[in-house]
Amino acid sequence: MELKEILAISGQPGLYKYVAQSTRGVIVESLVDGRRMNASASSKVSALTEISMYTEGDDMPLAEVFTKIYAHTGGKEAISHKESPEKLKSAFAEVLPEYDRDRVHVSDIKKCFAWFNTLVAAGFTEFELPQEPQEQE
Known about the structure:
Largest sheet: 5 strands, antiparallel
Strand order of the largest sheet: 4-3-2-1-5
Helix content: 25-40%
Shape: globular
Mean pLDDT: 89
Radius of gyration: 16 Å
Order of helices and strands: EEEEEEEHHH
Low-confidence stretches: none
Structural class: alpha+beta
Strand content: 15-25%
């Protein structure tokens, strides 16, 4: 299972693994309980490889943020997303000190930690982005 197969669906909690294309959308499987469902074509479905965090410089892909959290926690689960906003902000600042404090909201930080913990619980240890194919010259 690769990070490019992991999806976030707006209006649905948790993360989902892409299973197959269906006539009305995509079939996905929950990483938490393994249940399968159909995500309709009208749902906003985003692959985690397409999501990034605002920083004071260039935006940082979520895969890189997860890699930093993984290194910071030593491969264990991070702080719970249910902690107080102050604790979440300080923990996120330890991992990613250059994050844009004006544009990254507490809800974004909560989602980031919740998704990271879900991925670690599902057995993820590497969060690399898929490599772009190199063109032959």
